[in-house]
Amino acid sequence: MRDVIRACHKVYEIKYHMCFVVKYRKDIFMKEKYAEHIKKIMLEIEKRYYISAETIGFDEDHVHILVQAAPRYSPSRVIQITKSITAREMFNEFPEIKKELWGGEFWGDGGYIATVGEGSNAGVIRNYIKKQGGKGEQLRLIDFAEP
What pLDDT score does 117 carry? Predict the structure, then answer.
């Protein structure tokens, strides 16, 4: 039997592939410290919410995240929680980013989210996220748990 999560009076296995673009397509993830801080923020989100990041891949101006979330959250709420907390914490830790992103917003409007079934589909998404970065090379990858 696959690993399922037990919480919120339910047993579940709901995974999402999300992608967010930095406002104005700024290439801030070229700096390792920003990518590392996003990883720390995602670990903190996991402690407070029933949203846990499994894999994160960074390109210069966007991030792909494979998360598992509780059924209490709609896909749009998962995006809202993730984007708002990561943006707030990035601005708190690195106020210099506000100068690059003159509008005061970290992430661009919108984003991408899709459900991911475990099995071959999840493996394809994990590999896709791991290959993020320029010209087929991985820029930075954070794997929270091996499948």
Answer: 78
